[in-house]
């Protein structure tokens, strides 16, 4: 095999692998858990490992393909080193290194991105190769954007539902961040390509990306783009010379663009409450940027929690994927209106402070700082056109800005590291080059030819050696967890298809047997399956008990494996409480694990709710009331906590507490940020149910009257009101409500209404 042939084989195989990566954003793995995440991440890791082995062979064959030392190269690997150290010394190194199916990040993501960066910056040696690479990224993004357009046109619904599109990315915010890169890269290529047709295509592509970003209704990306446009205009005015007429026109356009980019968001904000804006859900969302807005205000609460965690471990942080521990320990009870569990701080500063401490944040920020410095050097030296350097700097700045309210994922990570690799490629031109005369002398040529002949077998031996190691690595860290994900889906599907409960359990056991980083998610799904089966009396009791005990056993192990995350303790407590008939010892264990969770996370309301339910089931009214009262005191404006306390007080017939909490509940509902209608519709039916069960009908009409005012054609409200009035002997009101129910649904309620009216007219007692 000739030297040249082998080199070309390496180069083309590596190129093919690298060019496949952008199209992974289109891959949806329906046979795995989290189909928008797992499949493409596993594919990326496998491709990266393969091209890395090929690159090793190429670098051994021809040392020209070894990376040259540079500021950015050293910065990238310093970042990887700091993160690796932080993960190794974190509170849960295994989770930090391998993450889970839902995120597929951790050190494995950073490590593979570093390999990807290394291969890119070492193999792509010409500007033409880089333009092709960026062109492939843009082409892939067009397909992603077109998929999102189909969602907007109603061809099929997005994963999130509603009007926000997510394409094949699976999340509107992620899609917007991804397309933001496509938008800027289109202009990078626009500058580099000479043919008008390609310039036109790129302008259309950039415009298309902007339209889809608008359809995502993502405020962070929109603000980042506007800020990026302003920054580009300012930098263009400051650094682009006005020596030619074309340059002077460009500066004038930049100034005009600066004015427009400042005015448009200001005007949009001023008219945000007009009918024109409010009738568009997208415009309404984009202009609703208030510090008091629920999503925004919740971010500040989460950042406070993150800061508390950083103060505890400031230098190297907690390790990646461990924010849940901070969330448990420093939970702010005012977060009750948000989702119950967060695993990210939703801010790039706090994410890296939590993940890797001050050193981690500094190493991450240095990626941007060094990139900006190198771009400044490249522009000043004329190696890269000033306008291109500005574009690249603005792209990185915009990406960083939108990360203030969100976090990275595969689709943005690979482009980001690709941009870093491109900047590093250009920075190699800043280094002195070996004079060609020294390399072309007869002696030098003879030595080179001898080296080339020896390099072929040496290169192949390295590929074999690294290949064997990488095959083992690939199997353990990719194939096993990939198969586990598929086995989990098989278990879930078999349960939905009516397969016997024991067979489904065997499928779960098969998934667990792979023993990879997806085990935690297998256990969660197993626990949910176990609770569902246990309530299904058609399944033989011995099978239900077997499944229950196995689910408990696995969740106990999960709670030990990640002891800092109270989510698993709460999950385990629910299993214990559900499965007490299978094993009476679970009763005491439920209380013990809940009290342990409460000690670990003393401000997390769901723990109080579950503990109150436990004491209520035991018939311990006083403890139930005490725990429910504590939950209310944690966040006095939490409607659900007030409803729970009210219901417990009603069942316990604690009249004074009932009167006090019901007044407090109504006051809270009136000031609820979701609106009083939402609060009444979700809360009052529960209060009515509790009052009915204890026979306290006197209070009920007050709540039915408000519910009927909200929804007068709700059949359940009218029927309930008729029955309540009848029980209270309010004949006229009962007859009116009964007739209204018959009017709303004559087919089903005419006869029952007439029977009720006859009973009232004849003076019969209402049962």
* Number of helical segments with 4 or more residues: 33
CATH topology of one domain: Serine Threonine Protein Phosphatase 5, Tetratricopeptide repeat
Gyration radius from CA atoms, angstroms: 32 Å
Helical coverage, percent range: over 70%
- The top-level CATH class of one domain is Mainly Alpha
- The tally of strands reads 0
What sort of overall outline do the alpha carbons produce when their principal axes are compared? Answer: globular
Do you know the CATH architecture of one domain? Alpha Horseshoe
Taken as a percent bin, the fraction of beta residues is under 5%
- Uncertain residue ranges: 433-440
Q: Specify the CATH homologous superfamily of one domain.
A: Tetratricopeptide repeat domain
- SS class: mainly alpha
Distance between the termini: 95 Å
Instruction: Average the pLDDT over all residues and give the rounded result.
Output: 90
**Sheet with the most strands, sense and barrel status:** none
